[in-house]
Amino acid sequence: MTLERDIALLKSVPFFDGIPAEPLKLIAFSADSREIEDGRFLFSAGDPAEGGLIVVEGRVDLVDEAAAPPKVLERLGPGSLIGELALIVETKRPATAIAVGRARVLAVRRSLFRRMLGEYPEIAVTLRDRIAERLAALAPEIGRIKDVMEGGERR
Q1: Is 28 in contact with 10 (CB distance < 8 Å)?
Q2: Which residue has the higher pLDDT, 132 or 58?
Q3: Which phi and psi angles does 73 have, rounded to 5°?
Q4: Domain check: are 73 and 148 in the same one?
Q5: What's the whole-model pTM score?
Q6: What are phi and psi of 2, to 5 degrees?
Q7: How many CB atoms lie within 10 A of CB 152?
Q8: How buried is residue 24: exposed, middle or buried, by Cβ count under 10 Å (0-12/13-18/19+)?
Q9: Would 99 disulfide with which of 93, 103, 109, 153, CB 3.0-4.6 Å?
């Protein structure tokens, strides 16, 4: 895949929406491209997350292997970002990721993402605002889940 195609793909990822081409070029140029065969694990639940993965080609299932039988939580295709939080902070993978058919991903290390933010600090402000909006939108849903788990029902 060409650098231009990788930049176009990054522009299509909602997390990177509105980020200029130059910082995305840094990510596209420096990210690691990985080919994964059908049925192979990208990572397992509990593994340390060193950054995010962007699905370039194919499909990736996020699976809860602790469920009996294992449950597919989400099937992700091209343009999907796996591990958005891992781009910013150290964390562990909450689910297992398995290639469905042949897949290709771009691995964006946290250190690379932080380097991009260091070179383009205005992007950090944009992302901070975006994350704050998403957290504010999640607050009512978290309250509803809490009520349901405590046996009540929020309307």
Answers
A1: yes
A2: 58
A3: -85, -35
A4: no
A5: 0.83
A6: -85, 160
A7: 10
A8: buried
A9: 103
